[in-house]
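Budget justification, computational time. The allocation requested in the original proposal was used primarily to generate structure tokens for proteins on the priority list. As evidence of use, we reproduce two of the resulting records. The first is shown immediately below.
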Amino acid sequence: MSENENNKDRRIDRSAIPLIAVRKQLERIVKDGNLKAAVLASSDGLTLVAPVNDDQSEAISALAGYLNKAKSLIEKNLLNTAATDITFTGQDGTTFHCRYLELFDELVTLAVITKGAAPSGEILSRAMSGIMRIMRKHDQLSTRHG
């Protein structure tokens, strides 16, 4: 499939419902990034959105919440600046990667597990910008109708 066909296909498979749109965004990065899993988790480790709601998604979200606490301690005591990513790499190259963003003044985590090498920055950036675009659009709609 060419890049134009891929983009066209991606644009057709959308939803006006924000949570479904974000789920579709995560499904797409799992496929395009050759990932085992991807979830959007709250700072306290609850699954906000996952392509598949199962025990693995819940475990990933819980671990992302736990790492958020560790991230805060590391930022405060070692970095003196905000961390954007945390990555753990297994001996076989499988990675558990968390990328952080703020949505509506709340810290959320995009947590992914790869099948091999670390996820590409392009895949993670595309996911984050897509999630932010979806949520901004939803916020604009709710402001107009609220």
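The second record produced under the same allocation is shown here.
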Amino acid sequence: MEALELLPIASMTLLGAATAVRCRLFGQRWRQRRQQDGVQWCGTLQNLVMHLQRHRGLSSMWLNGDRSVGPRLHAEREQANQHMHTLAQLPDDHLSAADVLPRAQWERFCADWRALCAELEQLDAADSIARHTELISQALNWLRAIGEASLSAGPQDHGWVSALVDQLPALSEALGQARAISAGVAARGQCTAVARVRLAYLASRIETLNGACRQALAASQHSRLPGMRDGLARIDAGVQRTLQCLASQLTGCAGANGADCFGVCTEAIDAVFALMSGLLAGARSAQPGALPLAA
């Protein structure tokens, strides 16, 4: 009799345990899909930032008199447009992206980009750089917010996620601003006092951010992987060549070839984006709890 009375209790216990397992599995699947959505958003935003930065640098050269960059400028504009179109189509079912990428902000961003492209010929180089930089800053804010909301599965991920969506993008942007000013100076053949002050500040900031990236990634589980070491070495080499180029201009050698200055800075920036892509590829292919860096 007592055994029969205990049967409902046992059944309820088993039902509760089964429900808990289902909830846990559902939560894991939801987090995995959230991360997959985040990877898509962050990857597309990274590409958009990269092409906006290149468009800014080429615009600076073009507005400072180097009209040979026209075809490349047009190509970068088309690439940026394609990534903006992709962003508008991405899923946000698990990411709640509307909270970090409000429609009104997005529509304003697109309108400002179209206006910049339409008015570029009438701008001076400094205004062009300022307007590009404002757009890039907005895209970087979205990258940081979406990445922090979706990519980290726990405290063990904070180091590499912070580097991916904060320190590395900040380094790319400091390098990108330096590229725009440096290539413009070289194209014009003259370094103004304002440009000299700005380049000196950016050189210092690039050094600081490069160290911050290395420190953040050294604290992550990826720090001993060959891909990480090689990626950081490429960044260091590119940063040092960029700093040498900036130092040359700061000491009065303003007449270097604009394409050369653009290329030196681009080498460093490309190394930053390569490491970012590797980290993101690791997140895309990883099993829960293990995020190997893609070589």
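A brief technical remark on that second record: The chain is about 80% helix and 0% strand.
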